[in-house]
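Let us walk through a complete example step by step. Step one is to write down the protein sequence. Step two is to encode the small molecule, magnesium ion, as a SMILES string so that its atoms and bonds are unambiguous. Step three, shown after the inputs, is the structure prediction itself.
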Amino acid sequence: MTTTTAPTPVLEASGVTMRFGGLTAVRSVDLTVNSGEIVGLIGPNGAGKTTFFNCLTGLYVPTEGKVSYKGKVLPPKPHLVTSAGIARTFQNIRLFANMTVLENVLVGRHTRTKEGLWSALLRGPGFRKAEAASRERAMELLEFIGLDHKADHLSRNLPYGEQRKLEIARAMASDPGLLLLDEPTAGMNPQETRATEELVFAIRDRGIAVLVIEHDMRFIFNLSDRVACLVQGEKLVEGTSEVVQGDERVIAAYLGTPFEGAPGDEEAAEVEAAEAGAAEAAEAAEAAEASSSTSKEGTAQ
Amino acid sequence: MASNDTTAPERGLIALPQSVARVLVAVGAVATIASTFMSWTYTDEFPGDLTYYGSPAGLQILDLVAGIFTLLFALTLWNVRGLGWLNPSGATQPVVLASCSAFAVSWFSAIAIAVDLKGLVALDPGAYVTAVGSLIALLGALALPKPGDTFKDYVTKPDNIPPAAKIPVWGERLVITGATAAALIIFAYGIGVDPEASETFLGYLLLVVFGIWALMTAGLFDRFATLNSRHKGFATSMAFLAAALFPFVENNEHNSNLGVNILVVATVALGLNIVVGLTGLLDLGYVAFLGVGAYAAALVSGSEFSRFSGVQFPFWAAMLTGMAASLVFGVLIGAPTLRLRGDYLAIVTLGFGEIFRISVNNMDGSSGPNLTNGPNGISMIPDLNIFGFNFGSSHDVGGVTLGRFANYFLLMLIITAIVVVVFNRAADSRIGRSWIAIREDETAATAMGINGFRVKLIAFALGASLAGLAGTVSAHVGYSVNPAPYQFAGSVPPNSAFLLAAVVLGGMGTVNGPILGASLLYLLPEKLGFLREYQLLAFGLALVILMRFRPEGIVANRRRQLEFHDTGQLDIPEQALPDTTVGVTKAGA
Ligand SMILES: Nc1ncnc2c1ncn2[C@@H]1O[C@H](COP(=O)(O)OP(=O)(O)OP(=O)(O)O)[C@@H](O)[C@H]1O
Ligand SMILES: [Mg+2]
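Step three: the predicted structure of the complex.
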């Protein structure tokens, strides 16, 4: 959407590989996110999207590959990644359940404030000023996502959709340059999904690049400047929404039809991949329906 | 009640006209009051000597209080002017619970007399009057309108309590002062009960439990909490002032000694609360840090049994030494283990606690280096002398003679105050929030930019040094230090299990909780001699019961109360919820 003349990369991941024992969850993935961009990351369940996020944010130490933010290589420590400028949300909401909404966002301010134990104990003017500034910023963010009227509620008592929004506010509190959203609309109804779409655009307009995982295809293709599709840990295609939407390999991967050169599936590749016939496609669609109803998110069903 | 709500057909458990029910409560209460001026038994063998006419003693005083309490609540049912504040919603529950307090104290006394002495013949007419009177009051209370269909409704606070009427600021402060004074008197009375008179103490417990329960269901505790939060600084100062008055009210060395010991364990429990309650780290060897502080202070106290007997630090330096020593040990234990997840820390701290005790036991010069004088410990620790004020001798203050333990009580109170301030300030800050975040979800906390290891180590080290601080005073109070008390579980406090139980029973993450928990756990075995051998069993039972019925502890953190009882939201003024499209428009703007 916003086409700047010389896009500067915010995130550069190259050759990121993550192995769990014998399982390679992410295989040599390269991905770049430029400033001002919204990039979508799609792929069937178990494709390794969340694992890739965890590699980016230091929750996992990638087996191979490197991740850099604005040209600097990131150490695989979550708190250092966050203070460098990458913030994230979680697929399975991980708010601080017994803290208030405001306190959740204040925790997000952690890396951007300095006050240690001594200043907390002595309560000098510096401490008060910093605390007031944090509160002001947190309230501003709550207003941005429309939760300011619930600042004093416990986050565990919020409805699901608001919890997801609060996670976004908490992540934004660390003043990130890049925001990673892991399935931000999972479990939301169509209106809430629409609202989240608006919210992501508004975040981008604040100058924050966004990398978003989502299973809701309409959402992701509406939103993203670029979409990458991950299948069995490998990046299958990357391109504009139109390109990815039209790519038959993507469709095949989602529908579960084998095709020539399917990544990460050597044995299957050795078998002569049959062209997807009409009858086969119908069968596959059924299978896909069955598997998507068992998927843990239950998105857009 | 009928005056409040005339539409609903109201019936009690016992079918009686409302006017009769009310009269019964009042008559029963008056009879109970009158009975306390009569003799309950003819011999003075029963603790407290209840043989006199005209002067209540021991259990009779408690029963008198319970009777007055019941009468006051009974009068609220007639809307007597000036008593409305006691039962703002005119509810049945507080009346029932108040009459339960009178009933419990009366019947407990009568039964205790009959059991202790030789059967019913030991009872004088007064005992029968109190038993019958309190029974009438209870029956009358049960004939009042049912608060609900289940038993539970009788013991829970009703929802329809109106907010308190506006009173001027000085009035609010007066209320806080009065309530604090009442708390001091109640507490001092409990501490002052003769340790031989277990019966009296049990009666005291019955009265306090039912009385507090009645006040709670009347909604007075909530109102008081609101007042307190509005005058936080004032309320805290009043609480400390009241505590400082304790040695004057209960001017007796034995009780002052009890008071100091309670303050020590309460302070240490509060330090542990930073580690366990705020940060969620299970520390099973916490008492060792108290030991480190105590030993450090003993070593530099100038005692002739100290390895460095020539060295005598001034108290401030000894205090810093104790804190620093505990801090060093805290960091030494914490640094390797806090990188790991919870369970490892529990095991390592458990091990550390035992290692500390065993090492101290062996460092006597024969089985190890000579440092701690082995199982004999370091005794004859000289009394403190701060700016010429000798803690060992008595001083006259305002006409009251304060003895050695009273002096130490006041010193320890200052230390407790420091720890309370440290706890409050640390908890309500960036670092405190990061502790709570780690407790809630460590992964999410680190993903929000919190260096988990670092902030956990700070919590651990702060907790350790606060325990060390308390240890420096306790070394001087007790004349000597030896390895025995610093174990994981034992029959005498402080031990790690005791401290942990104090925190969990009292209420994790709160200030008042661990202080109350530690006081109760210390006082109960002290006053109830028969319990002493079964102390650990009683601890266990109390914990199981509490976890079943009130998992957030006696004093609930706002937060934890919501967590366990799903009452919805914090006590904030209700606001109309804006429609949900706000987020869209704001975000889209
Ligand atoms: N910690 C782990 N240990 C072992 N295997 C793991 C671990 N985390 C993820 N995996 C495996 O890696 C693969 C990729 O999982 P991941 O959660 O990244 O998928 P995803 O693309 O996010 O799927 P979904 O759309 O269902 O969220 C799965 O097969 C999963 O079982
Ligand atoms: Mg996932």
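Step four is interpretation. Residues A 20, 23, 25, 43, 45-51, 91 surround adenosine-5'-triphosphate (ligand 1) (CB under 6 Å).
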